[in-house]
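Render this sequence as a predicted structure.
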Amino acid sequence: MTHVYPTRDDSVVTALSEVVGGPMGDRARPHRWWTPARVLLLLTAVVLAAGLVQKAPCSLAEGRDQNWVYSHMCYTDLKPLYVPRGMVEHAWPYSDDAQTRSRYEVMEYPVGISYWAWGAAWVTHWLNGSPDVGERSRTPVSDLYGEKEVDDETQLFLLVNAVGFAALALLATWLLARTHRSRPWDAAAFVLSPALLLTGLINWDLLAVALVAGALWAWSRDRPVLTGVLIGLGTAAKLYPLFLLGGLLVICLRQRRFGRFAVVTLWAVVAWAVTNAPAYLTGPDQWRHFWSFNADRGPDLGSLWLLVDQAGDLGITAHTVNVWSWGLFGAWCVGVFVIGMTAGRRGTVAMVPRLAQLGYLVVVGFLLVNKVYSPQYVLWLLPLAVLARPRWRDQVVWQASEVFYFCTVWWYLGGYLAPTGGGDAGFYWVGIVVRVLGELYLAALVVRDLYRPAHDPVALERVQPGTPSGAAAQSETTTRSNAVAV
């Protein structure tokens, strides 16, 4: 046995394996070519292709009302942003040119996503025969929407991004399958996730997801510089990878590897600063737009703040949400810090929490108190969740809650949940609560695993001393006996 086989390790997979002959036998031989990584990569390609098919009805929505997009649950931000953000002219997202800014809005995303969208627009123009953007600049923006060439480009832009997202998902799969050397099949919960299928093409979040998967892999290989660089690049694409530093702080304190944490943090800052420099230097006001846009945002889609605001008819302001959400998130982080510092200290070998466990707890706390929860934000949790709690039963419970919310949010936006007598769509609140309960369910199991490692399938494994995964389980005992600080 070169690795853990899910049919022998997971009760759900064991039961399902009866359909094809039962669990892996002691005398069974693995296929020479079909390694776990190759199987997972193939499945990833299939799931991403199915995700593209799921979005296909929206390509047939010409001439239909907006509710067609919501009823078929195939909405994506990629096509609606192509013209109004200037990608139709391949305008630099951070240009301060007066004509560009009078015609197009500034991208409201971090620089990593803006760079990606700008690059995808360049590829789109190249594939479409390099249209004359000068002529387009003399055409009113409202007229560009009706041009057939622009409509074709919009479809092509979606396909170009889809190919890029597929590459990112394949990369994330490969990295997750190699994070725990003896548990490559844990990545199957990422690959076969309905969240990946349904939300992978909504926005550009898979860019940050792949970088987070890379950071998890780099840390498991004891590469602090690469870990820091990937966290910095991830933060330049989405804010949440920054929160991995909180988990690394706990791990390094437990292992007394203070210098290692400083190295990761330093390189994360350097990578973030270098990535942001072109945007800031070419258009500082446009660069600040992302921060001001989010600061001015009030209770928005999917958040508990929206539920409270609508249910209580409170009229909560953006300032109130900003103060309370960051305050509550700070308190949540303190709680995660205490859990991380106190868990796993009993027994002969002190079990230091894994980065995926602490990362999931911090990121889920951020999402719970955040002012907005867009449908694709579930992707933020996905690589962390599948490594933090690699049990199919628990993944299915959590994913079911996310799928339920995915359905309700589109029904809500389409007006299908609105009461006939008027008023707020209360059933949408149910969708928000179900999603929150699913995330808290998985968080509770992760906390239980931290305090009772006998429930954690990864902690139960026998690992060789000196390997990255083994170091996580034995380093605290080593540092106690040797009193060595790295």
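Summary. DSSP finds 25 helices and no strands in the chain. Residues 165 and 206 are 6 Å apart (CA to CA).
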